[in-house]
Amino acid sequence: MSEAQKNTTEATNSRKMLVTMVGIGTICALLIVLSFQTTLPRIEKLKAEALEKAIFKVIPGMVSKKTFQLEGDKLKEVTGKVKDAKLVYAGFDKDGKLVGLAIEASGMGFADAIKVIYGYDPHKEKIVGFYVLESKETPGLGDKIEKDASFLANFDSLDVALSEDKNSVKNPVTTVKHGKKKNGYEVDGITGATISSRAVGNLLKNSTGETLPQLYKNKDFFEAKSQQ
Asked: What's the predicted TM-score (pTM) here?
């Protein structure tokens, strides 16, 4: 075989290999897209079910709920799925009385974003429930924000009372070292998971500082809804 024929054969083989690799890559990409599109509805359904359960978990005593979209200082009731909207879930007891509001919040943890939902009692001005919706914190350490009983107890009655002018939280939520909690607005941190527990405190501070004054301005709106 001449040198020219050898080079031609090698070029042909290289093209065949390239075409084969491109073909395999294309098929794999199509399978991934198809798998994602097939499983997406089920994933969304499971997320919606998990959110529903979390709402009832963070508002003690609720038996029914209504969903509201918060736009600035205005609220409107919504039904069905609403994308890219700030939602507030109002919980009512068996007599139709408002017992709490569930609010989603998120912030950066040690590994990735942490997404939570917390229950707020507007009558007591306290956080009365807390649940982690999404987290990729380190197993055995950072994930204690989901499991550690003493840490979760912080949110049975966490003080988030508003200032006299109702435009801010009087004492912003603050995370302290484990065992150093002295005030009702402080979160007792987790030993060995300082960053994760501090991240929870920060995201609650930011969320309550922004959202609670807005909700206070709509207290009459919620009371009216509780009578419907």
From this structure: 0.79
pLDDT in tens, 50-86: 889 999 999 999 999 999 998 877 888 888 777 778 8
Which one-letter DSSP state was computed for residue 72? T
Alpha helices per DSSP H over the chain: 3-58, 144-147, 149-152, 194-216, 219-226
**Which residue shows structure tokens 């049975």?**
156
For residues 187 and 181, is the Cβ–Cβ distance under 8 A? yes
Residue position matching structure tokens 């609720």: 62
How far apart CA 60 and CA 100 sit, in angstroms, is 8
Note the pLDDT of residue 124: 94
The answer to whether 197 and 187 have CB atoms below 8 angstroms apart is: yes
DSSP label of 95: T
- Tell me if 85 sits within 8 A of 167, measured CB to CB: no
